[in-house]
Specification:
By secondary structure, the chain is of the alpha/beta class. It has ten helices and ten strands. It has a single domain, classed as P-loop containing nucleotide triphosphate hydrolases (Rossmann fold), CATH 3.40.50.300.
Amino acid sequence: MLLDVTDLNTYYGKSHALQDLSLNVDKGEIVALLGRNGMGKSTTLKSIMGLLKPKSGKVIFEGQDITGQRPHKVARAGLGYVPEDRRIFPNLTVLDNLMMGVKRGKIDASDPSAWTVERIFKHFPFMKDRVHQKGGVLSGGEQQMLTIGRTLMGNPKLLMVDEPTEGLSPIVVKEVKDVLEEIGMAGTSILLVEHNFKMAMSLAKRVFVMSKAHIGFSGTTEELEANPEIREKYLEV
């Protein structure tokens, strides 16, 4: 198991935001974390990444306990996080934004599976043509792609992506889906938080569905598709 989260409890002040939450992701797997707004999906990713410190529970990554570690240490362990609000550097060029994602300022070019600038350009061709443009002039979809590319430059073993298609047009949604599919096929595991049910179900093999602050359902995409009661209860689908 690549990522194993067990009985995680996270608070915002006195508000119990995650209650005994458990989930897991295996190597080479795409897993979707679904649920209505306000159920705790983003809080889950932030708690895994160390942006929020859980009060109890365990986050085990590749057999290593990373619970509550600072985000830069979690990133060095092999997790990449694409936040919902993208957080590109608007005054830096596309290339400079990408280079900000490199861990310790180095790229292992000897590793054929490493994410390099050249490899990023193969997956995101528009970046090659706009490499010297500032991130702030890119469209919303292009900024989303840039954020994913920047995170990949850290060569994560697990990519956690929070609502990558929020506010994007259907054409750009398909582009994002295709890119995530390619990343998964290249061997990088993905934990995907996504409001677009059809897109998430087309990418993932397994799903965790959140009720308020905890997991209400877990299973394969086929099991969720075959269970309209669960979809109506937790997803209004």
